[in-house]
C-alpha cells in the first residue's frame, strides 16, 4: 500500500496565472474561510420549505466523489484508496476523518472546519452541523467501492461530543449522479481594463507570495492562516449549492430573497475574512509596508483575492465612496454557464457581496455590525449572460 508522503504529489496545487485559478486533482478550488462556509450552510439549511441539507449533502457527494476519483490511480488497492480519501479531506482543510472502521459502517472525526466555523462565527447550536462531511463520505464510498450509500451524523462536536461520529447505511438508494457540465468556458484571450493601480502596492508580488504559501491542512486537517481557518473548496461545490438553493427557492417564488441572502453572506465574508487578514502576521510582514492609505489597502485585498482563486478581478474606478470592478473569469459566472447555459440575469452573488464588504471594511467606521449595509453593490454585466466580463458597481449608502 502507498501511504503518507507518497500520496501528497497527487494533490499538488497548480496555479494558473492567466485565469487566477487554483487546481487540485482536476478541480478548480476556491479558498474561503470558516466565516463564509458556516454562514452559507446556515442560510441554505435554514431556509423554510426546501431541503437545504439535501442540497449540501448531494453537492458534496457528487463533487468530491468526482475529485477523489481523479486522485486515485488504476493500480491502487482498496487500502490505498481509503488513505487517499482521508488525505484529500485533510489536505483541503476540512479536518481529520478516521476511516479505519468504515468496513463496520462507522467513521469518526476529531477536528472539523465546519464545527470550528460554526462555533466561532455563529455560536452554540442544538443541531449537528457536518452535512458537508456526510456528503463527502458518500462521495468517497462511491469513488472507492462504486456503492451508493447514505451517511448520517449521530454525534457532533458542535453539540459537545468528544468527536463527530457518522454511521453508514448501505441499503438500496439511487445511483450517485455524475458531475455533468458542458464543455469548459474558454478563458479570456484579450486584455481587460484599463485597470486602476496603486503606485505603492505591488500586486504581483502579493499574488506570488500568497500562491507560494503552503495552504494545506496541518496534522489536524485545518489551515490556520491570516487569523482565520481556510479551506480549499472546489468551485463546483459552491456553484452546485448556490444554483440549487436559488432554484429551490424560485419554485416557492422566493428566488430574489435567496439571492439577497447569498449576497449578504458574502458581504459578511468580505468584512470578516479580510479583517482577519489585515490583522494577521502575514499582512504585517508582507503587505503592511506597501500600504500608505486606505486605497492601498483596497488594492492589496483585491490582489489577495486573486491569489485565493476567486477569478481575475481588478479595479476599474475608485473613490472613497465608490468602486467599480471587472471580473473576467469569476467562478460563479463560468460555473453557471457550464451547469445551466446562458443566464437571463447576472449570477455572481459572492463577488457582489464581497465587493460591498471590502469597501465597508476599508472605508467604514465602527464594528463589523455597524459597517454592514453602509455600501451597496450590484452586478451590471455578467459572463453568465454572454458578456465578455462581469462588472460590479459599489456605492456608499446615503
UniProtKB/TrEMBL annotation:
Domain 4-vinyl reductase 4VR: residue ranges: 108-170, 328-396
Pfam family, one: V4R
Coiled-coil regions listed in the entry: none
Highest taxon in the source lineage: Bacteria
SMART domains: V4R
InterPro entries recorded: NO_sig/Golgi_transp_ligand-bd, V4R
Gene3D superfamilies (UniProt xref): Trafficking protein particle complex subunit 3
PANTHER family found in the cross-reference section: DNA-DIRECTED RNA POLYMERASE SUBUNIT I, SLR0144 PROTEIN
Protein name, UniProt field: 4-vinyl reductase 4VR domain-containing protein
Species of the source: Nannocystis radixulma
Amino acid at each position: 500500500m502507498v501511504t503518507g508522503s507518497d500520496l501528497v504529489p497527487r494533490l499538488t496545487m497548480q496555479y494558473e496565472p492567466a485565469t487566477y485559478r487554483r487546481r487540485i486533482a482536476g478541480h478548480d478550488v476556491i479558498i474561503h474561510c470558516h466565516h463564509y462556509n458556516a454562514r452559507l450552510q446556515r442560510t441554505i439549511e435554514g431556509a423554510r420549505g426546501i431541503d437545504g441539507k439535501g442540497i449540501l449533502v448531494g453537492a458534496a457527494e457528487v463533487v468530491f466523489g468526482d475529485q477523489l476519483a481523479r486522485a486515485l490511480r488504476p493500480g491502487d488497492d482498496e487500502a490505498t484508496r481509503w488513505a487517499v480519501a482521508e488525505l484529500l479531506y485533510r489536505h483541503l482543510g476540512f479536518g481529520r476523518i478516521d476511516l479505519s472502521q468504515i468496513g463496520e459502517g462507522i467513521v469518526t472525526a476529531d477536528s472539523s472546519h465546519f464545527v470550528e466555523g460554526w462555533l466561532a462565527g455563529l455560536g452554540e447550536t442544538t443541531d449537528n452541523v457536518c452535512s458537508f462531511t456526510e456528503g463527502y463520505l458518500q462521495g468517497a464510498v462511491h469513488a472507492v467501492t462504486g456503492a451508493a450509500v447514505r451517511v448520517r451524523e449521530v454525534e457532533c462536536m458542535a453539540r459537545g461530543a468528544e468527536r463527530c461520529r457518522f454511521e453508514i447505511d448501505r441499503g438500496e438508494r439511487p445511483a450517485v449522479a455524475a458531475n455533468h457540465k458542458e464543455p469548459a468556458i474558454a478563458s479570456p484571450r484579450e486584455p481587460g481594463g484599463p485597470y486602476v493601480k496603486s503606485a505603492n502596492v505591488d500586486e504581483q508580488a502579493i499574488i506570488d507570495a500568497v500562491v507560494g504559501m503552503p495552504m494545506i491542512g496541518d496534522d489536524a486537517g485545518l489551515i490556520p492562516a491570516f487569523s482565520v481557518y481556510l479551506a480549499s473548496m472546489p468551485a463546483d461545490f459552491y456553484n452546485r449549492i448556490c444554483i440549487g438553493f436559488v432554484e429551490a427557492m424560485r419554485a416557492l417564488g422566493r428566488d430574489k430573497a435567496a439571492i439577497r441572502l447569498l449576497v449578504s453572506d458574502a458581504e459578511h465574508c468580505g468584512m470578516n475574512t479580510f479583517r482577519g487578514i489585515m490583522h494577521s502576521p502575514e499582512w504585517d510582514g508582507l503587505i503592511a509596508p506597501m500600504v500608505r492609505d486606505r486605497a492601498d489597502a483596497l488594492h492589496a485585498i483585491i490582489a489577495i483575492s486573486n491569489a485565493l482563486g476567486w477569478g481575475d478581478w481588478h479595479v476599474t474606478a475608485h473613490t472613497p465612496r465608490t468602486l467599480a470592478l471587472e471580473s473576467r473569469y469569476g467562478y460563479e459566472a463560468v460555473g453557471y454557464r457550464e451547469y445551466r447555459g446562458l443566464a437571463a440575469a447576472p449570477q455572481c452573488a459572492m463577488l457582489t457581496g464581497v465587493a460591498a464588504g471590502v469597501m465597508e471594511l476599508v472605508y467604514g467606521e465602527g464594528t463589523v455590525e455597524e459597517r454592514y449595509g453602509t455600501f451597496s453593490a450590484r452586478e451590471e454585466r455578467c459572463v453568465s449572460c454572454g458578456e465578455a466580463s462581469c462588472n460590479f458597481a459599489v456605492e456608499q449608502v446615503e
